[in-house]
Every structure is written in structure tokens, then in C-alpha cells.
Amino acid sequence: MKHILKVLLVSMALIAASNLMYSQTTTTVLNKRAGKLSKAIKKKDVLKITMLKITGEMNSDDFAYLTEFKNLEYLDFKDVKLTTAYEKQRQYVTSESTLKLPILNKVEKLHLPISCTYISRLNNVSNLKALSLSDICNFDDKDSIHLQQIFVAKSNSTSSRYNSNYDHYGFYANETPNSKNTPEIQTHKLTVDTLILAEENFLQVWCKPLKYITPYLIIINDNKKKYLNRWSDHFDLQSIKDINGIAPAAFAGSNIATITISPHVKRIPDYCFFDCKNLKEINLTSVEYIGNYAFSNTAIKSMVIPASLKRMSYAAFSNSSMQRIEFLSPYPPTLENVKSYFATSWERMDIIIPQNSYSTFRIGKWKEIPFSEKGEKTHFIFNVKEPGTLQSYISKEQMERGDSLTIIGHLYDTDFETIKLCKKIRFIDLSQAHITISPKTAQEKKEKDEALLKLLSGVSKLAAQESAKKYKEGKTNLKGHLQTGITAEAIDIVAQEALEKSKQSSIQVETKCILPNYSLKNMFFLQEVKLPQHLSEIKEGAFISCRNLQKIVLPSNLKIIESYTFSNCVSLNNINFPSNLETIGKYAFNKCIALEIVDLSNTKIQTIEEGTFSDCTSATIFKAPATLITLKSYPISQTGRCKYYFKSMEPPIGFRATDSDIYIPKGSQAGWQTRSRLNVLIEE
């Protein structure tokens, strides 16, 4: 690789003229008959020749004679016809198109016969730097060599059949992601700094040498175009400032930090900058297309998309650090690969479009993506004076275009139906709000409870009647009949009393601040919520499947988190548990796969319910409170990886032995060892 930079900086004119470098001092020989090279060049002259061009015919005997040319640096036999005729040995030429190279230690530049279809023992030319061959030539895949330059010339038998395995100047790359979402790149043993092709068509037809070569730079002679096939961190950015195209995954895994794309480049292909963890800045100039996972795993936080862009993959920025994208065109590009599982980064980015282009962007998949016009207001503040009236404050346009809400005042649970209409909201501030159940909800609950009591009373009466019928028919004994009748009558009495009491009582509306059942469920773009300062309860499923929720601070007065509250909040990576917290319901944090630390040490929780933290696969620390008495299921489902910290002198009821590290109070070994039968415990 030490000469890569030098080779890449060589001008196009110099490369094109390289074939003529030795023309004035080259010894030219016509070998009219195979096997007669030793007659055409006397043995006394072989050590004098450094540059040699041969025409005519050659067989194995002629190639054996070439090994006598100890000072030969340049060898051109591209116009030679290979033959096995008149041979005394069959060591090198095995057919009219197959050649095994002899040992030519000093040869630096070699022109192979245009008719040659198979070449092997390339390693025998140990000092080789430049190679010329035809587009029909195959290599022995056992050869491993790095060259500065390869020139592929046009033969007379080029096939025009399209090779679907080649994707333009990216013939080495398989662009199908594997299970780890990474490109599979095939690197051949034969590598070259610069690959020069006679015509661009070689990249699209069956050009056999391309199956065996991994080039860094590709230059096309017929149109003077230059393509980057693979970047090396040894390169100078100036060497590719005028390139015409980039291959798929060309920069993948490199240490490049900043780059300006040549205005001639129209495509950023699949995986182009994949896993460039240091890439922070890029200028796309005149790009028209951005491919799959082109910027995955990069450090770029902001990007300006030129007006020239016509198409792009929905997965272009997946798993990247991208925070802001500004489009310069008033018309959106066509989105491809929109069903990609990995294309989740759009919800977390600020998408800025030109002024007065909102209506043109509201088409197709873009209807589901949150964006705003440059300079427009997207944060709205509402001071609600009468609970249940939030809908009258928020206009349809604000519902469609707003990305953050601050709500002050008294809200009912019914107001959240309005909030959920704001589909693209990312931030909600309820810190200065007080939320209660509405009289309407309380009335509906009362009616539902009364209907249930009526049903219970009716069922108990039917059970008593059925039991009496069976007793008369002799299908049950007296004892069983009496037991059923007594139980059914007791249930009926209780249900009737409760029903009568409910009818006589007035509607009970709670005044304490709560977050209602399923209040923010499935708000996909929601990233941060500030809860009411005086919140005491979060009801069932309040944040279920808010997949992009990352930040939430639980207020100090919070006492109850009901079941399924944060279930499937896969982006929630940190959460505080306040000291007044007494209850966490079952599956409350199920599938919070980004949650790393569960610290309940300062809470008042006595029971860990079933599945409370199940499938929290990233959790590495669980800290239990001193009040913990019962475990209805294992705290963290990923045993062995998570460390557990307990404050009690004995294990809680339901605790099971595990291969995880267990940290217990000093002096509590005896209590824990007896109850849990653990072999290893760590005293703090």
C-alpha cells in the first residue's frame, strides 16, 4: 500500500501514455515459428535486454527461454499467438489460450496476449507493478498479489450479455444485508490501486477479469471517467475530488471524518459510508440518489440535502447519530425501502423543508414523517381554563404540524383524545397541569359497575334454579344442592346490596392527579414527557408502545404505576423511581430493551409483580428496596448478565437461585445461604 497515494495522484494523461513509456528503447522481435525464440534472440544478448516486445507465435519452449532474461523489466507479448505445436516440454502453454507464467523476477510491466483466456502463476512475476490483459481473461484464484495498475483491453470476442451480478462500478459488493445489518463485501486476493478499463461497458457486460480483481480506483479510457471502488485511509481526499462515481460500501468501516462529494457524483450507493464512526461532516453537492444504509453507524448529526436529490432509501440513516436534515427542494424525493425494519431514525430527527412547501411534501410516505417548514413555529402552549375543553384550543393545522405541546391548567382524561390526534408530537410538557377523571367517565364507570352487579345477581339466581332442578331430577345430592343454594343466595344478596348502594350514591369524581388509562398509547413519535408535579398515579397502559420515548422523569409524589404502563417502550434507557413509589404493576416495563439500570433502592415497594421487568435485555443492574418482601417473578429475565443488589438480611419470598452476582448486606450470609441455597454471595 506504500505507493497507493503516488499512483492515485498520477494524471489521466500520464496513465494513458504509460503504454508508450518504453517505445524508444524496446527490443521488438518477430517469432515466426513457435519454439524459435532462442534463434531470434541470441543467448549472448539476453542479459542486455531490459524491454522486450514479441509478436508471432510462442509455445512453452519460448517461455522457458524467457527465464534467461535476468534483467528484463518490461515484457509485451499481447499480439502473440499461443500454441502447443513443436513443444519439447508442456510446462507453460497448456492450450492456445491458457498460460502458466514462468519465473520473471525483475519484470515490472507485463502485457498478456489478447487471446489469453486463463492465466496462472502470477506470483512468479514477483516484482510486477503493472499488468495489461484482455476482457476475456480468467485468473487462477490461488494467486495473491497487489499491483499498482491493471489495464483491461478489448478483445474481439466480448460478450454483450448483461451480468446481473455486477451493479455498475460496485461489482465486488453484495448489497443484501445479513442478519446483523452489515454489507457482505467480497475481497479478492488480487488487489490493484488503479484499474484502467478500455470502455465503461466492461462494468456492465461479462468482463471476466473483474471477477478476480478488487480495485481501489477505476479509470475508464473511452470517456475519461474515474470511479472510486474502495477507499483506503492512506488516500488523500484530493485524489478523488474529481471522481465520477462511487461503488457500494466504498467507504464502509473507514476512519474518514469529513468529505465533499464531487459534483460529478450523482449516486451515494448502498452502504457507501456504513460504519464510518468518525464521519461528522459531508457535503453532497449534486447528488441525485442515496441508497440503503448509506449513512448507518456514522457520527453525522446534521445534513443538508441538495435540491438535486430525486430518490433516497428510507433506511439511509438507520442507526446513525443524525439529528437534523434540511431539504433544499420544495418537492420531496421518492422514498424507497419504506418497509425496512431498520428505518426508525426519521422519528428522532428534525426534518426541515423550505418555506411554503408543506402542501407539496404531504404526499405518499411523507404524510407519516414529522417535518416543519424552515423558520415556522412548531411549539404550542395552551392554558386550559376549563377541563374537557382542550379540543377548542388546538386547531387542525396545529395538530398536523406541531411537534411539541405545553399544556397548563386542569385537564380531564377525555382531553387526551385530543392530544392523541397530534400524531407527530415529540415533546409534551404537563408539569403545570392537573389531570383528573371527568364526570362523564365517572358516570360511565358507575353504569358499567351497576350492569356488572345486575349480571352477577342474575347469574347467582340462575345457578340456584339449576341446582334445584338437578336435585329434583336426582342428579345431585341434598348436601351439594344446599351448598350451591347458600352460595348463590349469598352472592345475590351482596350484589343486590351493592347495586342499591350504587344507585343511591352520587358520582364520585377523584380529585387526585392521575395519568389516565392508555392516555398516550402508541404515540410513535413521542420522545419526552414532563409529567404533572403532583401526579400520584399512572394508570394502566398509559405509555404502552411509545417506541421512541427516551426521556421521562417520574415526579416525587408518584405512588402507583399500574400494569403495562411502559410496556414496549423500546427506547427508554433511563428512569428514576421516586422515594414515595409503593406499587409497580405486572409487565409495567416489559420489553424496555434499552433500560440499563433498575434502581428501586429508595422506593417503598413490597412486591415485584409478574413480568414487571421481563425482557429488559440490556439491564445490567437491579437494586431492590429494603421494603421488598415478595418476588412473583424474577426481577430481570436475563439472568447471568445482571447484577442484583439487596438490602434485606434474608432473600425475599419467591427468590430463586441464579448464576448472577448477588450483593447482600454485610453479615447476612447465614440468612441468605439458608433460604436460597446459593453457593456464592457477595457482601457489600
From TrEMBL:
Signal peptide residue numbers: 1-23
Name used for this protein in its record: Leucine-rich repeat domain-containing protein
Species whose genome carries this gene: Bacteroides xylanisolvens
Alphabetically ordered keywords of this record: Signal
Pfam families with a match to the protein in the record: LRR_5
Keyword Magnesium tagged: no
